[in-house]
From TrEMBL:
Assigned GO CC terms: cytosolic small ribosomal subunit
Biological process per Gene Ontology, one example term: translation
Keyword Ribonucleoprotein attached: yes
Family per similarity comment: Belongs to the eukaryotic ribosomal protein eS26 family.
Protein name: 40S ribosomal protein S26
InterPro entries named among the record's database cross-references: Ribosomal_eS26, Ribosomal_eS26_sf
Length: 110
């Protein structure tokens, strides 16, 4: 039977079973290796109140702590939120080793 993707949409190489994670978008359970993961770094406060906090701070050059969040989405939520986009049949064969390679590919087209 023909397959759509070489990896069958998973990142499970040589493992029989993977644990389940909860999607941050809809809450459904999916395999950990199938989840689309993004690591985001955000400020704990928004930019409008950041200046007020820096002015009120006693210590000079105090850096506010950041919020580190690992987001995990199912495929349908990731497509809906435009985190990933469906690729054509020929582009599905291209395998990327890093996110920078993907970004370089989009920069060349523009």
């Amino acid at each position: 039977m023909t397959v759509k993707r070489r990896c069958h949409g998973r990142n499970r190489k040589g493992r029989n079973h993977t644990s389940q994670v909860c999607c941050d978008g809809c809450g459904c359970k999916l395999a950990k290796d199938k989840a689309i993961k993004r690591f985001t770094v955000r400020n704990m406060v928004d930019k409008s109140s950041l200046r007020d906090l820096q002015d009120a701070c006693v210590i000079d050059k105090y850096e506010l702590p950041k919020l580190y969040v690992k987001l995990q989405y199912c495929v349908s939520c990731a497509v809906h939120r435009k985190i990933v986009r469906p690729r054509s049949r020929e582009e599905r064969k291209i395998r990327y080793s890093s996110r920078t390679a993907v970004l370089d590919r989009f920069r060349k087209k523009e």
